[in-house]
C-alpha cells in the first residue's frame, strides 16, 4: 500500500467532500495539504472539516499548531511524511487533499527542504514593514535577489515573501536554489477538480456567505481576544485580515465581505498556476459532471489495483 492519491485544485471545488467519499469507499485516511488548516482555533475561515466530517474518516494535520507558532514547509514536510508512512504502514489508502500548491508538490516531487532556523528579529522587522504597507517593496526586493522564488510566490503572499527573504539574508543563497528533489517513496495518482471560472466564483461567493453565517466575525473576535494579533502570519489568511479590519472600524462588514470574495477569486486564479490544466501529471475532472464522484472512484480503483498487481509481480520476481 505504498501508493498515494492526491486531490488538488482551486478552492471551493469540493475536494474535502470527495476525499471523504473516497476514503469511506476505499478504506482510506486524509492528510491535509492546506497551509491554514494546520492552525488551531481557525476553523470557519479556513473551511476546516467540521466535527461530523472528522468523525467519518480519520484526518491528519488539522489543527496541529497554535496561530502564533512557527510553522513552515519544513515542519509540514516532516509531519506529512510521518502521517503518510503511518497510514500506509496500516495498509490503508493515504489521500493527500488540499489546494496549497507548495505543500502538495513538495511532497509529490520529493523536495529536500533545508531546515533554516527562523530569525525572529529579522522576521519581526519584515512583518512590520509589510503591515505598514510595504509588501510591494518586500516583493520587489525578493524579485531582485531571487526572481525564481518571487515568480512562484507572487506579490500577495506576504508570509512566504518574508520567509524567502529571511532565508536569503540568513544564508546568502536564494531560497529557490536550496531545494533539491528526491523521488518520494510512494506511487502517486493526482486527481484535479476544476470548474468554469464563473461557476467557481459563484461557489466561492456562496462559501464566503456561509462562513459569515456560521460566525466568522465571532471567530476572529475570539482569536483577537486570545491575544492572536492581526500581524501574525497565521492571521494574514484571507478572511481574517478583512474581518479584523472590520472589528477595528476600518471597514464596513459589507466591504470586508466583498474584499474576502475578491481576494478568494484572485487566490483561486493563483492556484491554477500551481495546478495547471495542461499538466499531464494531473487527471482533471469537471465538478459539473453528474457522475464526477463515480468517475473519480473508478480512476482511483484502477490505480490502486494496478499498483497492487505491479507490487505482486515485483515480489514474485524477487522470490
What does this structure look like?
The protein is of the alpha/beta class and 319 residues long. The chain has 2 domains: 3-113 and 180-318, Rossmann fold (3-Layer(aba) Sandwich), CATH 3.40.50; 120-177, Orthogonal Bundle (Histone, subunit A). Helices cover 55% and strands 11% of the residues. The protein is built from 12 helices and 8 strands. The strands form 2 sheets. A 6-stranded parallel beta sheet has the order 3-2-4-1-7-8, sandwiched between helices. The longest helix is centred in the C-terminal third of the chain and has 27 residues, at 292-318. The chain starts with a strand and ends with a helix.
CATH homologous superfamily label of the largest domain: P-loop containing nucleotide triphosphate hydrolases
In the predicted model, the low-confidence regions spanning at least 5 consecutive residues are none
Helix content: 40-55%
Mean pLDDT equals 92
List the secondary-structure elements in sequence, H or E: EHEHEHEHEHHHEEHHHHEH
Number of strands: 8
Number of helices: 12
For this structure, the CATH topology of the largest domain is Rossmann fold
Cα gyration radius (Å): 20 Å
Number of domains: 2
Determine and state the CATH class of the largest domain.
Answer: Alpha Beta
Strand content: 5-15%
Distance between the termini: 19 Å
Main β-sheet, spatial strand arrangement: 3-2-4-1-7-8
Shape: globular
Helical/strand content category:
alpha/beta
In the CATH classification, which architecture of the largest domain applies? Answer: 3-Layer(aba) Sandwich
What's the story with the biggest beta sheet?
Answer: 6 strands, parallel
